[in-house]
């Protein structure tokens, strides 16, 4: 089964990682007054947040001073951040690592940043568009493929995703029977401003009686 690693944040707007880096978490909010941050993990390797590890935040390397898991989120104290005022500006910011530190994955599994942007074609060579995002549904990932006028939701299954070629930046898929694209919503044109003054055809406004 084709899977992607480094999970997208569900339902949350996520900024693009810094070039040369990969996102492993996203700061949700702060906790307490001593600079602690609440982090949503975007990785399947929880050891990334262990005490003593180095993460990049806001373009600066930060050592993990304290790490506490609560359910599916992790609370971190990072070096150089000691007050709530210092932590607050990082809400929504990605926690990153250098790409060369990413672990090698088994065959058939890919990192999210490797998949996004791939040109997707069918097994008979028909172009569908580009892979725009990956949805985590529980049973399997779903690849959102967007063309010029329509969007496909392609399940990431062995019999659907036939080949992934990262060198040529292409993915070949077999569309399951009954799967249909959905049209992309077009932006509603903005109304044109109404002309004012003499050019409107009514001449200048009459003075009040």
What does this protein structure show overall?
The protein is mainly β and 209 residues long. The protein folds into two domains: 3-8 and 16-101, RimM (Elongation Factor Tu (Ef-tu), domain 3), CATH 2.40.30.60; 116-181, PRC-barrel domain (SH3 type barrels, Roll). It contains two helices and 15 strands. The protein has helices spanning 84-87, 112-115, and strands at 3-5, 21-31, 36-41, 54-57, 60-70, 73-78, 94-98, 109-111, 119-122, 127-136, 141-146, 150-155, 161-165, 170-173, 182-183. β2 and β3 form a beta hairpin. Mean pLDDT is 85; it is low at 6-12.
Keywords:
mainly beta; Elongation Factor Tu (Ef-tu), domain 3; SH3 type barrels; 2 domains; 7-stranded mixed sheet; 15 strands; 41% strand
Topology of helices and strands:
Elements lengths: L2 E3 L15 E11 L4 E6 L12 E4 L2 E11 L2 E6 L5 H4 L6 E5 L10 E3 H4 L3 E4 L4 E10 L4 E6 L3 E6 L5 E5 L4 E4 L8 E2 L26
Parallel strand pairs: 1-8, 9-14
Antiparallel strand pairs: 2-3, 2-7, 3-6, 4-5, 4-7, 5-6, 9-10, 10-11, 11-12, 12-15, 13-14
Uncertain stretches = 6-12
Kindly provide the name of the CATH class of the largest domain: Mainly Beta
The sequence of SSEs as H and E is EEEEEEHEEHEEEEEEE
Helix content: under 10%
Average pLDDT, all residues: 85
Number of helices: 2
The shape is globular
Radius of gyration over alpha carbons? Answer: 24 Å
Estimated structural class: mainly beta
CATH architecture of the largest domain: Beta Barrel
User: Numbering strands along the chain, what is their spatial order in the largest sheet?
Assistant: 13-14-9-10-11-12-15
């Amino acid at each position: 089964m084709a899977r992607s690693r480094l999970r997208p944040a569900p339902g949350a707007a996520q900024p693009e990682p810094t070039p040369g880096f990969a996102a492993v978490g996203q700061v949700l909010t702060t906790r307490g007054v001593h600079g602690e941050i609440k982090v949503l993990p975007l990785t399947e390797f929880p050891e990334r947040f262990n005490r003593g590890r180095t993460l990049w935040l806001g373009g600066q390397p930060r050592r993990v001073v304290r790490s506490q898991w609560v359910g599916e989120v992790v609370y971190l104290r990072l070096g150089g951040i000691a007050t709530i005022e210092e932590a607050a500006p990082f809400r929504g910011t990605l926690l990153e690592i250098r790409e060369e530190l990413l672990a090698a994955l088994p065959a058939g599994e890919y990192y999210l940043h490797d998949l996004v942007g791939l040109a997707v074609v069918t097994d008979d060579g028909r172009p569908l568009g580009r892979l725009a995002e990956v949805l985590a549904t529980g049973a399997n990932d779903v690849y959102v493929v967007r063309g010029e006028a329509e969007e496909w939701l392609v399940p990431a299954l062995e019999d659907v995703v036939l080949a992934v070629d990262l060198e040529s930046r292409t993915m070949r898929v077999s569309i399951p029977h009954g799967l249909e694209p959905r049209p992309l919503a077009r932006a509603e044109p903005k109304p044109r401003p109404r002309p004012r003054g003499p050019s409107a055809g009514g001449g200048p406004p009459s003075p009040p009686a």
